[in-house]
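Below is a filled-in request sheet from our internal design queue. Each sheet records the structural input a requester submitted and the sequence that came back. We keep these sheets so that new team members can see what a complete request looks like end to end.

REQUESTER: design group, bay 2
PRIORITY: normal
MODE: inverse folding
CHAIN LENGTH: 458
BACKBONE (tokenized):
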């Protein structure tokens, strides 16, 4: 199912409403124009009949003689001469006329509807003749024997509407087109604030729960801003409760673990030779539990960590993490190589980068015991900083790499740790806007961890 954007959906609905409104307005205008043209045409019929009556006034005043059923003037001329007929048609070219005397036709225009079908009554009438609808008007003179009927086709009235519709069509089309453009621009402008709000929220980190300023957004978005601020407050409270709970649990667990470790070391000094290995495994298990607690606390604190940015010497940061790792290793246990050997500056959060480097380097040391070598490279270009950490261990199969990014997932090695190291690194890189990728070393066996930081930091 195709998904439409909110402006598009609103635009379509309002456009349909606009089209229906335009059709309704067009229908109203058509009806109004039809009525007005009908009134004007009826008035034209009245005027035409009055003109005919005026043309006959002189002859009627002189006296009318009926000879052989034909009404004529006293001097024998027809009641309506040919000149009068031409003058009438010059003024009303679409009208026909018939003059009746005692119901008998005595003069007519010579074209139009058959005389037998013409209504011989006063006032307006509609009738059919010659396959058309006609509109007629009958007027009597002072002599009740005289009836003047003027008629025209209804088609002529409809023909009169066509120019009006043509004149209205272009302005209406231009108005509709302008309304469509204005409507789209208005919707896009109005909803741009919603898109801006979405991008503002999308750019925030998980720990950025500062309330939004209501005054910076349109009043229509105020209910949404207030609701979001309430959600931020609830999330901040939930993070604080989670952090407090994690700290309390870690404190309660570390105390007995420290006591167990101390007692185990004491037992190992006085235990018989047969129990030495069991006590060593017990101490290793306690150390692993401590590492698990530290990892869980680190993950918990990352949820409420605010990301900052400043210029950092990444080479010095790597050297510091390597030096800390060497303090906890036997002499000549692992050899480190760091390239390049000069200052590499980058804008980033030094604390978060140090957490990620510590977790990756600790993981590399754990799996590099046989290879006894860890290679670290820092590569900077215009838009990103790439730090690669490679060991000489057994490596990780491609199918297992994504799984190891999740919490409490262990590798196949017997020296696997708490299962939180790579998940911590993944969390840190998400906060920094970077990425972590696991790959095979191109120069032999081992795992290559690639950390990429964007230049957008700060």
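RETURNED SEQUENCE:
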């Amino acid at each position: 199912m195709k998904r439409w954007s909110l402006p598009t959906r609103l635009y379509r609905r309002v456009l349909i409403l606009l089209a229906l409104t335009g059709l309704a307005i067009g229908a109203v205008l058509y009806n109004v124009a039809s009525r007005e043209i009908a009134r004007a045409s009826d008035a034209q019929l009245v005027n035409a009949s009055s003109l005919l009556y005026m043309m006959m006034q002189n002859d009627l005043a002189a006296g009318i003689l009926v000879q052989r059923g034909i009404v004529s003037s006293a001097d024998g001329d027809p009641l309506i001469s040919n000149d009068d007929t031409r003058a009438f048609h010059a003024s009303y070219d679409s009208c026909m006329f018939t003059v009746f005397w005692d119901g008998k036709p005595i003069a007519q225009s010579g074209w139009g509807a058959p005389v037998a079908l013409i209504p011989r009554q006063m006032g307006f009438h509609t009738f059919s003749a010659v396959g058309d609808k006609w509109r007629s008007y009958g007027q009597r003179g002072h002599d009740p024997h005289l009836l003047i009927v003027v008629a025209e086709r209804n088609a002529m009235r409809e023909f009169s509407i066509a120019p009006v519709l043509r004149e209205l069509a272009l302005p209406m089309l231009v108005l509709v087109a302008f309304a469509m453009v204005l409507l789209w621009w208005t919707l896009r402008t109005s909803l741009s604030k919603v898109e801006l709000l979405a991008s503002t929220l999308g750019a925030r980190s998980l720990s950025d729960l500062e309330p939004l300023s209501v005054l910076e957004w349109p009043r229509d978005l105020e209910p949404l801003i207030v609701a979001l601020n309430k959600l931020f407050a609830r999330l901040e409270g939930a993070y604080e409760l989670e952090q407090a709970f994690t700290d309390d649990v870690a404190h309660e667990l570390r105390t007995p673990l420290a006591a167990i470790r101390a007692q185990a070391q004491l037992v190992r000094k006085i235990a018989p030779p047969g129990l030495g290995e069991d006590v060593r495994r017990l101490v290793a298990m306690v150390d692993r539990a401590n590492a698990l607690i530290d990892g869980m606390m680190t993950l918990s604190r990352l949820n409420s960590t605010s990301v900052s940015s400043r210029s950092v010497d990444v080479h010095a940061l790597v050297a510091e993490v390597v030096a800390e790792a060497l303090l906890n290793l036997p002499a000549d246990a692992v050899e480190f190589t760091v390239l390049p050997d000069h200052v590499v500056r980058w804008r980033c959060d030094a604390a978060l980068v140090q957490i990620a480097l510590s977790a990756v380097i600790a993981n590399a040391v754990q799996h590099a015991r046989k290879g006894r070598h860890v290679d670290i490279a820092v590569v900077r270009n215009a838009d990103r900083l790439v730090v690669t950490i490679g060991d000489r261990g057994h490596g990780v199969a491609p199918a297992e790499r994504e799984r190891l990014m999740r919490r409490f997932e262990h590798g196949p090695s017997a020296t696997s740790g708490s299962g939180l190291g790579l998940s911590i690194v993944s969390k840190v890189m998400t906060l920094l806007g970077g990425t972590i990728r696991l790959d095979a070393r191109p120069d032999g066996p081992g795992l290559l961890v690639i950390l990429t930081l964007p230049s957008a930091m700060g």
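SHEET NOTES:
- The chain has ten helices and 14 strands.
- Confidence is low (pLDDT under 50) at residues 65-69.
FILED BY: M.R.
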